[in-house]
Specification:
This protein is α/β, with parallel strands linked by helices. The protein contains three helices and seven strands, in the order E-H-E-E-E-E-E-E-H-H.
């Protein structure tokens, strides 16, 4: 932050098919407004506030009742967000490979 109270740096967000809902929206906003890099694979998508109905047989149905739209073009990222820098998401022997690659490869490049 500088004197204006706003964050003026660059963001790096790791994304993959497990990124959905509010995290998907966050990724979409970062990409749309070019305030950082999305590293990884396409997000799963999904934006909305679900409402749950319990049926007579005790099964539950979730219905999205609200969607969120961003900007004049009313983009909502419901079909997922593509990364700006593609990296395959891999966990090898319990080690998060994409995190390690990001720290080594992109931190200096984006600064």
């Amino acid at each position: 932050m500088k004197g204006n109270g706003f964050f003026n740096g660059k963001l790096i967000l790791l994304i993959n098919e497990n990124t959905f809902s509010a995290a998907n929206l966050f990724a979409g906003v970062i990409k749309k407004y070019k305030i950082g890099e999305l590293i990884g694979e396409k997000t799963k998508g999904g934006i909305g506030v679900p409402f749950a109905f319990v049926l007579r047989d005790n099964s539950i149905v979730f219905i999205p009742v609200v969607s969120i739209y961003i900007g004049e073009d009313k983009e909502n990222f419901s079909n997922g967000v593509e990364s700006t820098i593609y990296e395959k998401d891999e966990v090898i022997n319990g080690k998060d490979e994409i995190l390690g690659k990001t720290l080594k490869k992109y931190i200096k490049k984006i600064q």
